[in-house]
């Protein structure tokens, strides 16, 4: 019994010095769900307005035709696919933190993984819209789904876009399942504190969870298996997305490095986005006790690692282009650095390659404002990384006579900016409806109350 | 002709809970049930659980997914053979991706269904004997006993200084 | 989709043409004789073909017209025509858009105050007769017309004793006058370009303008292709700027503007030596030498001497004098000088024929000047304008508008609004030539008939000018013998007919079927040089001083003199030289621009003593540093929705002056100053890389010397390196021959099973023949319902043409005489065996048919555009908007080809190898008791219209097919195939150069 109790205490002590009693957690976390403050309403208003912009821009594009974008030949993909890849990337760290770190028993994941998972789900929801937004005939987009139809035609499973359909839907389903499953006990906790309509709602979605030994038993196992399934999925999804490009023959796309390169980039941007989201969350709801500098330090280290992988990928791309001796490859990458879109490339290199060097310094890793600022630059940098990959490659392909320049249109930018609001809208709702911090998992790492030790004093 | 009843004790401390369970078991009580705010392996240990059959669901679901993935893609390709890019009409490498995604998808869904069935979820009828504090900070032990042994059970549970001890209908909430 | 044809109109048309095509309106019923399809009644769904004559320009090419359900939907070149011999230029194709031009008048327009109201024909003709009767002093200003119409006009004018003035903006007057002076011949010389071994063009743009661009284009291709003996004719261009014609030259001698005479005579002096050849001009020659020539032209003496020697020895050779773009103040003399050069080189009677009497747009600007002064002096009562638009095509300086206003009654026969009609009091809209009768005599002994191919477009209540004149004469009590122009014309031909020509009816019907009949003309005695009967100055002409840059104003290959400007096809057709669409541009040499700190796209003010225009600069290495060039045809103010406000009118910079003695309008007359306005614009071009092919294997060439012993081990290595470079690609068999490797292992399943029953469609394009004239681009647009998108969309990079003629400079130097190497490459869907576009499509919207065609299934497409991204040739175009709805007004949609889907927005499209034509032939073959398809029976639109006959289509599985034969050439290659292994079905034959190929030519 004694050593059975020791290690939880030890682990608890590591991350949560100020929280001692189990129901402290309920108190602190569930109070978030009570009446929101001004800050929340301000953000929510902003988000709602943004969603309006998002829907009007999209509506206009559907009414007018995809020409409302700035796309052309040869640049058939632009801001839309860029933003799609960006959001898929964001979606990654969620499952990474909840599944992979769970399997590795990383001690610092508990207090952030719920928020991270929510981010994942909403990010996939956002990302999933962009393939629809960018097609010419959205009213026929469902033709990508395999179902018996009057055309006697099935989708082309050789096409990376069909792989995408499967990868993204699977990823959404699994991460949503994972998110919900992990939340059930906490919803029950909320239920037992809530009153009125909220209670009814929680009763329903907590599925009558009691926290009985039998439930906990299967729950634990199921959670592990889901984590085990989600882990390869995380790695596969962004690989599949990267194959949208790598499978093609476009110079600048057609490289074998893409899958690992994209996965690293995804985790990089994802963790950065978690930081961006959690910092205000911590401030607004006063969760300093649960989101300690140790957590941020750990996330910063993860950023640092992935940023180095990503930067290595950049360098190796340029090196290979030169080393290949192939004029077409060389031109493509020369154009990347010094061509029409040089500025995008240099933003990318600065934000993703040079800036994260600061994370080597402990003082930076422990300064939450610094991390917040850096994380935002990383997000910008990662958006531009995709922009550079998508646009510069397409603009200078094999046929010099057909080279072309692409300039995003207002509609496009409206939809891109609006997508952030769309994401924020759901995330804000989440913070008000579900416990944004995993109550029951926190309790696992707290010292369980022991009578014998009391007497021992 | 004897009545059966149930006792629900709420504890503040983990060790008291575990001790109570162990003593009840020693005394030969069946139909015990423990509540806790988080999954605690001491309690599971005390109640003597072994592997959960959920894993079987996961495995079967996953394999079904793999098979479906390959079968479906191959069949649809042959259903109306169209050559694209001079590639073979059935291109296994491309189909591996579909098969993989379906493996994960089916595996995950099967796991969820398995969990629900095994842990009797969803279960929306109101609990008969239940303490809302279980989701906050308290542990609980529920035991069933025939009228005769009810007192013995009460004695054991009280021995661990419960915060609260309630009597309920037999068979409730098991 | 737009509801193009109202049902009633449709039935009307169907009924009318259906009943043996009776013409309604004023003319008598007359049978129209279909050309190809036997049954004369309309079979819905089956095309009926008619033969007629293209009345687009003075060339009068033979034309086939494809009609469906009584609508003309496509025009094509008539291979049986003795002059044009098949092929049709872009302008010819675009005449269809003038037929369905929504800006045509809906009926006769009568002026009331400052507005025009629509009236009835009776009313209009009454008024015309009344005014003529009342006022008199009729002046009939007319453009080029056929012999019968010309005859009728003369009779009409004489009957009311008025005057007739002939005027065309772009004319060959100096050439004509030169022929008269030097040889006393009344017609233009006819050139046998095809047989020349060395061709010299002194600023003559013979494949764009002149007596027969299509025929000359054909000739150029024939001349420059390698013959059995392994030799090919050489083409040297002497001029300050490379036109489309010039870009096809093997050498460019960038002589100073206006120095043609000096150079020609300098060369002649070398050839003639002291032999005193050149008859009456021997003395003239003595005062010229390569030295004087070099001095005048600003090029090296050796270059001229060496060229002269070749010109004397490589006979037969051929030289052509300056054409409309180079009509300077001594243009006639320059043409005479070139005639002397031909004479001393012994080309007369071999490559130049003066006795053919080729008719030309030879009307003189000088006559127009006197007409203007007459009108200004109020000596003109009724001014009638037919078939010309002086208010636009005469320089503003001429004061035509003001003078025209002086005439008390002004009549226009314009069928659609133009700048002159806008000033008229009465507009009598003429028929389009596809709705009307007419004839043409492209040269003596050739009689071609122009017949209506459909009932007049019902939207427009038009009437043939000839009928109007006859009606008016009748009103005035003058009987011209016939009630309708058709009768008048037939009568005229009967008169000309003599027994030697056989039965008249037979000849007539034959002319209608074949398009033309040719009968022998007694060849006149061999022509001798005659002493000039007028003073000729062979000096470089003086220029008005407006600045330090010479202004070159040339007819546009797209718009001619501006009469074609209101066609969206032509507006959107990338200019063969600049690849710019819609707007005007100023061509300027890069060095000149650099010195002045001008960048491409800068809008500059071009100022001459006669006017100024603001126009964006386009940097062009093919123009001398001391010159700038502007094309005609832009800046219409009152023509139609597409022409108006598009570009600037170059004529505004010119003086109103006629060259003496020919009386042609002077187009090379002034220098200009160029000053930046500080504004910029994005040029509406389709060109991405400024003519640089970055040493990629796209448009390679091979030196003539290397032919026969090329293709050695060297190549293998090159390929291997390329492959290693790109990596990941399957090695390619080095044959570069027929791509029968399709389908590959594993794909040979069901309908794809390897079998020689199935044809494999393929195409071969000979880059040595292609002149980049762009006729195929418009032909394809017409055949395949390819919409136009408008200037703003082009600027965004959304051009829709299925054919893109790529123009790469390999060797071009405006500072000295030297080799010229510009590659033209028509890029269409390559129909790759391993098409990168196919596997990436999620919905099978594009896939490979068993016949080896890369099919695009429009109604499957959801518009992911992945295929276009993955197409290395960038030949896939996307419908960003509902172009076909939004851009195509009624009745222009009457032109749509019913056999081709009209695409909606959000879907991808591209070249289909004219699948509809393949299917049509397949079906016909099947109906004719399942006979096989004959080789050459399937002719895609591009091949049909190609004047150079550079394109061949057929079944490459049949080793006897034409395409297999052509592809077996050692020059065959496939674009990018060696590095991407795409296995295209489109094969190209390398251009053959005389010089060693420096770049872009590596295999």
SS-based class of chain C: alpha/beta
The overall average pLDDT of chain C, rounded, is: 86
**Could you tell me the strand content of chain C as a percent range?**
15-25%
- End-to-end distance of chain B, in Å? 22 Å
Which strand order does the major sheet of chain C show?
5-4-16-15-14-6-7
Helical stretch tally of chain C: 29
CATH architecture group name of the largest domain in chain B: 2-Layer Sandwich
Largest interface: A-B, 71 and 71 residues
The CA-CA distance between the termini of chain C, in Å, is 47 Å
**Which sheet architecture does the biggest sheet of chain C show?**
7 strands, mixed
- What is the class of the largest domain in chain B in the CATH system? Alpha Beta
What value does the average pLDDT of chain B take?
A: 83
What name does the CATH topology of the largest domain in chain B carry? Alpha-Beta Plaits
Decide which structural class fits the backbone of chain B.
Answer: alpha+beta
Number of domains of chain B: 2
In short:
Chain B has 174 residues and is of the alpha+beta class. Chain B is built from 5 helices and 4 strands.
Please, could you describe this protein's structure?
The complex is a heterotrimer of chains A (457), B (174) and C (1003). Chain A is mainly α. Helix content of chain A is 73%, strand content 0%. The two termini of chain A are 17 Å apart. Chain B folds into 2 domains: 5-51 and 125-169, Alpha-Beta Plaits (2-Layer Sandwich); 54-118, no CATH class. Chain B is built from 5 helices and 4 strands; from the N terminus they run βαβαααβαβ. Chain B has helices at 14-26, 41-47, 54-79, 92-118, 147-159; strands at 4-11, 33-35, 139-146, 164-169. Mean pLDDT of chain B is 83; it is low at 170-174. With 1003 residues, chain C is α/β, with parallel strands linked by helices. In chain C, the strands form 11 sheets. In chain C, strands 5-4-16-15-14-6-7 form a 7-stranded mixed β-sheet, with helices on both faces. At the A-B interface, helix 2, helix 6, helix 8 and helix 16 of A face helix 1, strand 2, helix 2, helix 3 and helix 4 of B.
């Amino acid at each position: 019994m004694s050593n059975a109790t020791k290690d939880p205490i030890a682990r608890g002590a590591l991350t949560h010095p100020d929280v001692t009693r189990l129901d402290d957690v309920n108190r602190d976390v569930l109070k978030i769900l009570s009446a929101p403050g001004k800050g929340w309403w301000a953000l929510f208003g902003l988000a709602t307005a943004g969603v309006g912009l998002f829907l009007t821009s999209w509506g206009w594009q559907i009414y007018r035709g995809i020409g409302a974008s700035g796309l052309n030949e040869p640049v058939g993909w632009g801001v839309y696919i860029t933003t799609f890849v960006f959001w898929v990337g964001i979606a990654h760290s969620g499952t990474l933190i909840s599944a992979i770190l769970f399997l590795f028993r990383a001690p610092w994941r508990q207090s952030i993984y719920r928020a991270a998972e929510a981010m994942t789900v909403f990010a996939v929801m956002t990302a999933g819209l962009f393939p629809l937004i960018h097609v010419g005939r959205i009213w026929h987009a469902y033709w990508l789904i395999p179902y018996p139809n009057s055309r006697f035609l099935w989708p082309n499973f050789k096409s990376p876009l069909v792989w995408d359909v499967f990868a993204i839907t699977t990823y959404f389903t699994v991460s949503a399942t994972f998110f919900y499953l992990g939340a059930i006990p906490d919803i029950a906790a909320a239920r037992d504190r809530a009153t009125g309509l909220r209670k009814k709602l929680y009763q329903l979605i907590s599925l009558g969870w009691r926290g009985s030994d039998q439930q906990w038993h299967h729950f634990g196992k199921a959670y592990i298996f889901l984590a085990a399934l989600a882990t390869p999925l995380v790695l596969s999804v962004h690989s599949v997305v990267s194959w949208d490009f790598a499978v093609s023959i476009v110079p600048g796309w057609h490289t074998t490095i893409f899958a690992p390169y994209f996965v690293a980039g995804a985790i990089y941007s994802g963790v950065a986005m978690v930081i961006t989201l959690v910092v205000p969350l911590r401030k607004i709801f006063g969760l300093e006790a649960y989101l300690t500098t140790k957590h941020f330090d750990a996330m910063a280290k993860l950023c640092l690692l992935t940023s180095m992988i990503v930067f290595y990928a950049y360098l190796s791309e340029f090196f290979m282009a030169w080393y290949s001796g192939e004029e077409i490859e060389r031109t493509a990458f020369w154009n990347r650095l010094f061509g029409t879109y040089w500025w995008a490339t240099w933003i990318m290199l600065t934000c993703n390659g040079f800036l994260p060097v600061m994370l080597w310094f402990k003082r930076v890793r422990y300064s939450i404002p610094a991390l917040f600022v850096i994380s935002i630059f990383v997000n910008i940098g990662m958006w531009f990384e995709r922009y550079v990959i998508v646009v510069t490659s397409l603009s200078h392909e094999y046929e010099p006579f057909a080279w072309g320049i692409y300039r995003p249109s207002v509609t496009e930018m409206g939809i891109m900016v609006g997508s952030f609001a769309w994401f924020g809208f759901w995330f804000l709702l989440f913070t008000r409806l579900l416990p944004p911090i995993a109550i029951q998992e926190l309790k696992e790492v707290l010292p369980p109350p022991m009578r014998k030790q009391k007497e021992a004093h | 002709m004897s009545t059966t009843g149930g006792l629900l004790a709420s504890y503040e401390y983990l060790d008291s809970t575990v001790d109570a369970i162990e003593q009840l078991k020693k005394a030969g009580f069946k139909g015990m049930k423990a509540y806790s705010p988080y999954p605690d392996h001491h309690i599971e240990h005390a109640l003597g659980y072994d592997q959960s059959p959920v894993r079987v669901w996961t495995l079967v679901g996953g394999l079904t997914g793999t098979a479906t993935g390959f079968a479906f893609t191959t069949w649809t390709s042959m259903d109306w053979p169209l050559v694209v890019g001079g590639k073979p009409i059935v291109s296994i490498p491309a189909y591996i991706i579909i098969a993989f995604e379906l493996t994960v998808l089916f595996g995950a869904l099967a796991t969820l269904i398995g969990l629900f069935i095994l842990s009797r979820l969803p279960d929306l009828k109101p609990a008969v004997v239940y303490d809302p504090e279980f989701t906050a900070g308290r542990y609980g032990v529920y035991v069933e006993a025939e009228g005769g042994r009810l007192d013995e059970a009460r004695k054991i549970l009280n021995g661990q200084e419960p915060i609260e001890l309630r009597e309920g209908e037999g068979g409730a909430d098991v | 989709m737009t509801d193009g044809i109202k049902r009633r109109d449709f039935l009307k048309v169907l009924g009318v043409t259906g009943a043996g095509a009776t013409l309604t309106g004023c003319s008598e019923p007359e049978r129209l004789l279909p050309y190809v399809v036997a049954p004369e009644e309309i079979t819905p769904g089956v095309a009926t073909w008619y033969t007629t004559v293209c009345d687009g320009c003075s060339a009068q090419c033979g034309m086939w017209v494809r009609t469906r359900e009584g609508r003309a939907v496509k025009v094509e070149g008539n291979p049986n025509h003795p002059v044009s011999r098949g092929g049709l230029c872009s302008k010819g194709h675009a005449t269809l858009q003038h037929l369905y031009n929504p800006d045509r008048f809906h009926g006769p327009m009568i002026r009331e105050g400052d507005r025009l109201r629509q009236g009835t024909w009776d009313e209009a003709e009454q008024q015309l007769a009344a005014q003529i009767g009342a006022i008199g002093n009729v002046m009939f200003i007319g453009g080029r017309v056929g012999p019968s119409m010309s005859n009728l006009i003369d009779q009409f004018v004489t009957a009311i004793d008025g005057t007739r003035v002939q005027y065309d903006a772009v004319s060959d007057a100096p050439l004509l006058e030169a022929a008269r002076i030097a040889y006393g011949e009344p017609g233009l010389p006819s050139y046998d370009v095809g047989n020349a071994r060395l061709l010299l063009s002194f600023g003559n743009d013979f494949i764009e303008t002149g007596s027969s661009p299509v025929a000359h284009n054909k000739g150029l291709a024939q001349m420059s292709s390698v013959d059995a003996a392994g030799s090919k004719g050489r083409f040297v261009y002497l001029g300050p700027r490379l036109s489309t014609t010039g870009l096809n030259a093997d050498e460019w001698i960038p002589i100073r503007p206006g120095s043609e005479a000096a150079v020609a005579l300098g060369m002649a002096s070398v050839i003639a030596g002291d032999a005193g050849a050149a008859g009456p001009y021997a003395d003239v020659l003595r005062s010229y030498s390569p030295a004087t020539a070099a001095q005048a032209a600003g090029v090296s003496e050796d270059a001229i001497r060496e060229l002269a020697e070749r010109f004397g020895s490589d006979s037969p050779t051929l030289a052509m004098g300056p054409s409309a773009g180079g009509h300077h103040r001594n243009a006639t003399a320059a043409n005479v000088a070139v005639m002397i050069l031909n004479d001393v080189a012994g080309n007369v009677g071999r490559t130049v024929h003066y006795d053919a009497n080729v008719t030309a747009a030879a009307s003189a600007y000088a006559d127009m000047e006197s007409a203007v002064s007459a009108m200004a002096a109020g000596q003109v009562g009724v001014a009638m304008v037919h078939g010309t638009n002086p208010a636009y095509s005469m320089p503003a300086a001429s004061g035509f508008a003001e003078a025209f206003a002086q005439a008390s009654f002004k009549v226009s026969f314009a069928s659609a609004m133009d700048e002159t009609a806008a000033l008229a009091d009465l507009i009598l809209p003429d028929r389009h030539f596809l709705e009307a009768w007419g004839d043409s005599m492209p040269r003596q002994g050739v009689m071609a008939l122009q017949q209506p191919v459909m009932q007049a477009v019902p939207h427009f209540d038009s009437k043939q000018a000839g009928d109007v004149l006859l009606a008016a004469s009748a009103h005035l009590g003058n009987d011209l013998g016939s009630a309708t122009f058709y009768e008048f014309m037939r009568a005229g031909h009967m008169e000309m007919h003599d027994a030697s020509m056989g039965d008249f009816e037979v000849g007539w019907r034959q002319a209608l079927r074949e398009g033309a009949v040719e009968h022998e003309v007694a060849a006149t005695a061999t022509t001798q040089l005659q002493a000039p009967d007028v003073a000729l100055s062979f000096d470089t002409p003086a220029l008005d001083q407006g600045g330090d840059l010479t202004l070159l104003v040339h007819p546009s290959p797209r718009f001619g003199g501006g009469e074609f400007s209101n066609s969206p096809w032509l507006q959107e057709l990338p200019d063969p030289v600049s690849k710019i669409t819609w707007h005007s541009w100023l061509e300027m040499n890069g060095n000149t621009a650099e010195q002045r700190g001008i960048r491409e796209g800068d809008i500059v003010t071009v100022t001459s003593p006669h006017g100024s225009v603001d126009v964006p600069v386009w940097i062009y290495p093919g123009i001398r540093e001391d010159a700038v060039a502007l094309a005609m045809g832009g800046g219409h103010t009152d023509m139609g929705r597409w022409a108006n406000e598009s570009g600037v009118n170059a004529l505004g910079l010119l003086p109103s002056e006629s060259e003496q003695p020919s009386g042609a309008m002077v187009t090379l007359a002034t220098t200009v100053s160029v000053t930046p306005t500080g504004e910029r614009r994005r040029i509406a071009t389709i060109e991405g890389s400024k003519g640089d092919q970055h040493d990629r294997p796209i448009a390679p060439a091979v030196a003539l010397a290397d032919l026969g012993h090329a293709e050695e081990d060297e190549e293998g290595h090159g390929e291997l390196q390329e492959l290693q470079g790109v990596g990941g690609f399957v090695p390619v068999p080095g044959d570069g021959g027929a791509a029968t490797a399709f389908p590959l292992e594993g794909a040979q399943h069901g309908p794809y099973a390897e079998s020689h029953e199935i044809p494999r469609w393929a195409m071969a394009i000979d880059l040595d023949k292609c002149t980049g004239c762009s006729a195929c681009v418009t032909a394809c647009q017409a055949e395949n319902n390819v919409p136009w998108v408008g200037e703003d969309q082009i600027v965004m990079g959304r051009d829709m043409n299925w054919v893109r003629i790529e123009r790469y400079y390999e060797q071009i130097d405006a500072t000295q005489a030297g080799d010229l190497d510009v590659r033209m490459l028509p890029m269409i869907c390559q129909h790759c065996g391993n098409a990168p576009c196919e596997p990436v499509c999620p919905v099978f919207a594009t896939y490979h048919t068993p016949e080896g065609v890369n099919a695009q299934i429009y109604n499957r497409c959801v518009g992911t555009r992945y295929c276009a991204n993955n197409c290395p040739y960038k030949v896939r175009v996307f419908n960003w908007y509902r172009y076909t709805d939004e851009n195509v007004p009624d009745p222009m949609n009457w032109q749509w080809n019913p056999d081709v889907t009209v695409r909606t927005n959000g879907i991808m499209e591209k070249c289909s190898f004219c699948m509809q034509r393949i299917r049509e032939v397949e079906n016909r073959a099947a109906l004719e008791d399942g006979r096989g398809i004959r080789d050459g029976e399937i002719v895609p639109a591009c091949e049909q219209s190609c004047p150079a006959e550079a394109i061949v289509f057929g079944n490459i599985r049949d080793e006897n097919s034409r395409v297999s034969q052509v592809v077996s050439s050692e020059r065959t290659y496939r674009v990018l195939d060696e590095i991407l292994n795409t296995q295209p079905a489109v094969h190209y034959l390398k251009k053959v150069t005389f010089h060693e190929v420096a770049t872009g030519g590596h295999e």
